[in-house]
């Protein structure tokens, strides 16, 4: 699994790239690249990791990321099940747009008329998401963009889309105010990267179980104290906080599904007591599980 954390996109002659993704699952590797990325999930569920943010995703999930912001849309485990019959296999679909900071020239976004777009690009460095109103409008615009032939008209459509997003007020930042990408160039292809990728994969596979710090540290080839320091320096949070957020992210997804009660969801998400689940859920989301469900139903 020796894959670089820094992801270089294929060179193209156009000023920006727009793709329709149809895959068994989204890219399972934690990575970053020097481009802005606007991504809409059309089909598929899982957990998205953006900087120090961990949240569930599903159809309609719309995110805008600035350059070099680490990210991962990790599809649910069912999407990796090779035993599934081809006719019933799950599919992940999405629309993604990539563009560089100077895709229209180095001075374009410094002009007075570009003030709102410049602010949008600045905000994207922390990652942005929008609620259903803006999301529905952007979904239609992105679909139109995929059918537009390369040329001036397509550039104009992208600028119009970005301008609409720059005036939308229903956005939320994804990463914490102090988050920065701490990955060093020397770590983007080698043991250090593989170490963090192994930890991510292990936690995502085993979070419903009792996770042993000793086991995870051994997986990373480190002592528990050294691993804790290493992980916090790179993830901007402690390992236990990371595990809690993965579990709560899974719980949010189950709550949105509406098929299980809160006690069942607590156990399915790896919590042994309901009181601990409720406490950590409120610490991470700012809401109780029941109020989270009410908010979700109002928005969606």
UniProtKB/TrEMBL annotation:
Coiled coil: none annotated. Keywords: DNA-binding, Transcription, Transcription regulation. Residues 197-295 form the HTH araC/xylS-type domain. Signal peptide: none annotated. The keyword Transcription regulation applies. It comes from the Bacteria. SUPFAM superfamilies: Homeodomain-like (SSF46689), RmlC-like cupins (SSF51182). It holds the Pfam family HTH_18. SMART domains: HTH_ARAC (SM00342). This is AraC family transcriptional regulator. The lineage of its organism: Bacteria, Pseudomonadati, Bacteroidota, Cytophagia, Cytophagales.
């Amino acid at each position: 699994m020796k894959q670089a954390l820094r992801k270089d996109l294929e060179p193209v002659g156009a000023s920006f790239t727009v793709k329709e993704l149809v895959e068994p699952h989204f890219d399972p590797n934690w990575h970053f690249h020097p481009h802005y990325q606007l991504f809409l999930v059309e089909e598929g569920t899982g957990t998205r990791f953006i900087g120090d943010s961990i949240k569930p995703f599903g159809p309609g999930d719309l995110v805008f990321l600035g350059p070099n912001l680490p990210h991962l849309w990790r599809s649910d485990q069912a999407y990796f099940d090779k035993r599934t019959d081809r006719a019933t296999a799950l599919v992940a679909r999405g629309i993604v747009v990539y563009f560089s900071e100077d895709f229209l020239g180095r001075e374009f976004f410094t002009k007075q008329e570009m003030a709102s777009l410049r602010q949008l690009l600045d905000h994207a460095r922390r990652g942005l998401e929008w609620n259903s109103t803006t999301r529905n409008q952007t979904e239609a615009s992105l679909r139109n963009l995929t059918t537009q032939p390369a040329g001036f008209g397509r550039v104009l459509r992208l600028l119009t889309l970005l301008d609409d997003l720059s005036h939308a007020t229903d956005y939320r930042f994804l990463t914490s105010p102090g988050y920065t990408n701490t990955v060093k160039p020397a770590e983007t292809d080698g043991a250090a990267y593989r170490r963090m990728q192994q930890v991510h994969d292990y936690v995502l596979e085993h979070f419903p179980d009792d996770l042993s710090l000793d086991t995870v540290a051994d997986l990373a080839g480190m002592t528990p104290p050294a691993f804790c320091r290493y992980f916090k320096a790179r993830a901007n949070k402690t390992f236990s906080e990371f595990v809690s957020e993965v579990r709560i992210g899974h719980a949010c997804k189950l709550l949105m599904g509406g098929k299980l009660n809160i006690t069942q969801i607590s156990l399915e998400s790896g919590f042994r007591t309901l009181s601990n689940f409720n406490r950590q859920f409120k610490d991470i989301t700012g809401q109780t599980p029941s109020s989270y469900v009410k908010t979700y139903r109002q928005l969606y």
